[in-house]
Structures are given as structure tokens and as C-alpha cells.
Amino acid sequence: MTDNATINADGFFGEYGGQYVPEQLLPILNELAETYEKFRKDPEFIREFQYYLAKYSGRPTPLYLCSNLTEELGGAKIYLKREDLNHLGAHKVNNTIGQILLAKRMGKKKIIAETGAGQHGVATAATCALMGMKCTIVMGEVDMERQKLNVFRMRMMGADVVAAKSGQKTLKEAVDEALAAWIGDAENTFYLLGSAVGPHPYPMMVRDFQSVISKEAKQQCLEDEGRLPDYCIACVGGGSNAIGMFAEFIADESVKLIGVEPSGRGLEPGDHAATLCLGEPGVMHGFNSYMLKDEKGEPAPVYSISAGLDYPSVGPEHSHLKDLGRAEYVHASDKEATDAFFKLSQTEGIIPALESSHALAYALKLAPQLDKDKIIIVNLSGRGDKDVAQIEDMISNGELTLP
Ligand SMILES: *Cc1c(COP(=O)(O)O)cnc(C)c1O
């Protein structure tokens, strides 16, 4: 696993991170942190993790040179790290495999997770089926209605999908109810977080499991090009695919790291989820990081065309990298993302997830400004099959036109 240079013993990346949680959760988190510390360098744990990544998820994923797109844009070479080719179609399974292997070592029998759009729930349900764990997924009642097919997928794989019925009946309520269920039965239950967020040790743990992305990409780029890339670009929701894409390159100062947030319909409050670009530091969901606040300092309403990116906070390590100036955070709009979605589909025959399309949108702007000998790697975090119906609806409503 990654050696941790930036996190201190209390679980802070600079001033970000920490454990801002109710008293009852502290011993549970500390037990988790201690167990993880013990296993993260254990050869048998690492071997088993790598076994499932290879045999179950199909890793290593290719580093693919987009020759057509590169030629059309006339500048830097654009490579894609094909996380869309993982089992279940996204990077999320890298993390669910790692955390469930850890849960088994802790003697836990049950996994609980929350999900918004359902992608993390599906990855969790699949990995629980694989590893013989009882699985409960908490999902806002409104989200369950919006994501019926994902609810059915989870149930097919044996998960119990529970509706969160309080408040707005979406992700925030699902988090609250899943946490309550965890505190109620922490003896037997493992809480599986889906992004590089939450209290310590989750951001570090998720970063380590996702860092397989940059470990592979670095080696593949050295093999194909004989040198490191000039840019690594990834979309940022909670920040797990981005930190996975950055981790192994942080010490390589020549590699520019760029995170792309969703600016949605525009930069007014409520129209975007560009947390690092437009937010300020604050505490929510148990950790300190940049966040988008309303007038009362509460988490602000957020919006993006892609359900995987609309979160009003962000992984704490990204806040630290931003303040250090080591990574740069920019934004792409719904329109830029859908343009990129069509562009990749039509030039390379690869339909990207709408989330990943944000990273790609920035690369489309950057590449033509750079010399032909420059190298850009875009993390293609997921495949777009899940988004095709939404795009089709938008086309039939006249909100979009097929280019
Ligand atoms: C969930 C998801 C994301 C956003 O989550 P991160 O933790 O920011 O990576 C991005 N892309 C895809 C395909 C996803 O499923």
C-alpha cells in the first residue's frame, strides 16, 4: 500500500480530515484505524487484495492512447486510464474489495453502506456476494424511486435495500440512518464508505485502495512512452478516483495534477457542486475539508448532471493538496461534460460515464494548447452505459441534440 507522507497520527492532512464524530464512534474508528495500520503492510492481505483485483475485477486496466482524438485536437497526446473496464464498470470496486477484506479480518459478519445514485451500493452488494457477507444498503426513498434498476441489481445480488424516509429522503438521510445502524451494532457490522471522505481512517484507506490506479498508470506510461506523463486529470466528487489517480505521482513534481469539479448549470449557489473551486473550509459528515455552505453554515444544496459528483464536501487530502498548490482544481459545466461525452463516443467508440466526462472536457480544452510531445492521462473512472437513458431523455426533451 502507499506510504503515507502527508497524514499525521491524528488523521489530518495538514489542517483537513480528523474525526469530528459523536463520542460513541471514536472507539469504533480507532479500532478500525489500528486494524488497518496492522494489515496495510501485511503481505498476505496485499496478496489477497491483488488477487481479487486481478481475477475478479480484471486488472490491470489498460492505459489507452486515443489516437483519433489526439489527431483531431492537434496537440498533446491523450491517454485514458480505463477504469471503466473494471468489473461493474467503474473504479468503485477497487475500494469495496479492500474494505471487505479488512472487515473479514476484523471478524465482522455484516456490511452496511449508504448510496446515492446506487453505484457504490451495487459495487458493495456484488463484493458482499463474492465474499459471503450479509449486506445492507441504505438509500433515500426518493433516490430508490429514481434509481429503480440499481435497487433491483442490489437485491438480485442478495442485498437488503432499506429506504431512508426522513427529511429530503436522499443521500444525507441515508448517511445519517446508516451511521445510526452502525453505532447500534458496531460489534458485528462494518461500515463501508464509498469515497475518500468521512472521518479518519476512511480517507487514507480509500486512497490506498484506489492508488492501484496511479501505480499501474505510472508503470504503463513508462513502458509506452519511456517517461512520466505531464498531466494527470480526474473528476472530483468525493475524490476517490482522483486521489487514486494522483497518489503515486504526488512526489513527482513534474507531473501536474488536475481535479475537475462539476460547475453544473452555472456558478450561482445551488447550480453546481464545485466544492474546492468555490467553497471554504468547514466540518460535515465527521471531517474538516472544503465545503459548500448555505447562509447558516449548513451543507448547501448542490447540483450536477451526474449523480456521482453532487456532494457538498470533498476528500480532505484534496483540500490539503489545493492549499499546498500541489494539485489544481478547475471546473467543467454540464454542457462541457455532455459535449465531451459525445466526442469520446464518436471519435473512439468509448461511451464515458458523465462523471468522467467532466475530466475529459478539461482535457479537450487543454490538449490543443500543448505541444505534440506532451502527455495527458485522463482517468476514465467509469463507463457511460448507466447514463445512456438519461441522455436519451434529454435529447427527446430537446435539452440536448445529438451531434
Ligand atoms: C462514484 C463515481 C465518481 C465520483 O466519486 P469519486 O469518489 O469522486 O471518484 C466518479 N466517476 C464514477 C464513474 C463514479 O461511479
TrEMBL record:
The modification N6-(pyridoxal phosphate)lysine is found at residue 92. It catalyses: (1S,2R)-1-C-(indol-3-yl)glycerol 3-phosphate + L-serine = D-glyceraldehyde 3-phosphate + L-tryptophan + H2O. InterPro entries: Trp_synth_b_CS, Trp_synth_beta, Trp_synth_beta/beta-like, TrpB-like_PALP, TrpB-like_PALP_sf. Its cofactor is pyridoxal 5'-phosphate. One of its GO terms (cellular component) is cytoplasm. Pathway: Amino-acid biosynthesis; L-tryptophan biosynthesis; L-tryptophan from chorismate: step 5/5. Its EC number is 4.2.1.20. One of its GO terms (molecular function) is tryptophan synthase activity. The beta subunit is responsible for the synthesis of L-tryptophan from indole and L-serine. This is Tryptophan synthase beta chain. It comes from Maridesulfovibrio salexigens (strain ATCC 14822 / DSM 2638 / NCIMB 8403 / VKM B-1763). The gene is trpB.
